[in-house]
Amino acid sequence: TGYITLDQGYGNTGSCESAITYIDGDAGILRYRGIPIEQFANRPNFIEVCWLLIFGNLPTAAEYGDFSERLTRHAMLNESMKHHFQGFPTQAPPMAILSAMINALSCFHPDMNGADSDDQFIAAAARLISKIRTIAAFAHRSSIGRTYNYPNPKLLYVENFMHMMFSEPHAPHETDEIVRLAFNLVLILHADHEQNCSTSTVRMVGSSGANLFASCAAGVCALWGPLHGGANVAVLDMLEQIHQGDLSVEEYMRLAKDKNSGVRLMGFGHRVYKNFDPRAKMLQEVAEKLLKHLNINDPLLEIGRRLEEIALNDSYFVERKLYPNVDFYSGIILRALGIPTNMFTVIFAMGRMPGWIAHWREQNLQGARIGRPRQIYTGPTEHDYVPRDQRG
Ligand code: CMC
């Protein structure tokens, strides 16, 4: 069947053509549909970016109004979905609940596989972007044994999430404009990153003809791992460990450089960026501003800064071109907003949802071939079956 090239981890294989996100890893450039990521920082609006990524243009006023209205209308979950939450143990990781419930959405909307028409696709996409937030908040409420806060149609996307997570009867920072904008920016900076592990997974699953809900549920599973979206939790654990005095910054750095330790500097390094991850720079600025605004003095921010400074001047990291990535500072922001650590990767998934949807759709419109990589076989050569009574 011809010669097969081994490319472990697909470091050098283009799996598709895509017009969604452009990255120049050497120059530290990231653009959504051609727009530099830095330009979203002025008045960050996550819903606008969702539309941009999925449909390719910044929404007109009419498109924005219609899409926002859909998100509001579809924020509720089917009442019987609530029983699912009670079926999980209290300590269940919210990422497990999230992927299971997103997959379950396909049972509640079986007429919406997303592929039959534009109307059906928009309906499915709006439901996913809206309901992932409700599922995330309900998973949290259920894990702390509190009643669910139903979505409030009067609230904007992020405010509604904070309300569903925290209202008793009010959510902290619920009217704080700076918090709302910071949270929008966090979601935007996670919204797409071309063929990362979870997005490639969504495309792979979707390439078999699987529906949009099932494909995105698979994306959540891929994102869960500590080398991908789970890194934002791992960063916080690392900073906490240093803060608690289990290890000093210097000891941690020594372990991170030791290949036998199994320890890495979490939130550092990237397959594509061999220069500063522009998202990390922006998130560091947001973290500094937000903490100042909320009058929070988080010792973890200082530890993060020290780790970064040492790493950027250490030949191990310099030679390998390892820089802070998106996960390095995001946790400090989420922590300042009162989001528990076990929800960090869930927030990443909320942000990444439009990217997954955009790629699923792009692939569908391309009529792409089913994903089916080959392998280099390394097992035994042909030998005969031995009956059980003759085996030694
Ligand atoms: N700490 C210490 N050494 C590292 C690190 C790190 N964070 N990252 C890479 N290296 C070393 C690695 O050991 C290897 O060294 P050598 O050439 O001597 O064998 C070299 O740098 C290249 O690393 P790699 O593992 O071949 O790189 P990769 O492209 O396969 O992996 C990565 C990329 C992001 C998984 C990796 O850098 C990593 O594990 N980082 C820590 C986890 C993390 O922060 N993940 C979030 C990624 S960004 C957001 C997302 O995608 O979710």
From TrEMBL:
The record ties this protein, via CDD domains, to: EcCS_like
GO cellular component terms listed in the entry, alphabetical order: cytoplasm
Q: Know the name of this protein?
A: Citrate synthase
Please give the family membership noted in the entry.
Belongs to the citrate synthase family.
Residues forming the catalytic site = H270, D327
Asked if the record carries the keyword Acyltransferase, the reply is yes
Catalytic reaction(s) noted:
oxaloacetate + acetyl-CoA + H2O = citrate + CoA + H(+)
GO MF, any single term: citrate synthase activity
Q: Where are the transmembrane segments?
A: none
Any one Pfam family here would be: Citrate_synt
Show the coiled coil region(s): none
Q: Which UniProt keywords apply?
A: Acyltransferase, Transferase, Tricarboxylic acid cycle
Q: In which pathway does it act?
A: Carbohydrate metabolism; tricarboxylic acid cycle; isocitrate from oxaloacetate: step 1/2
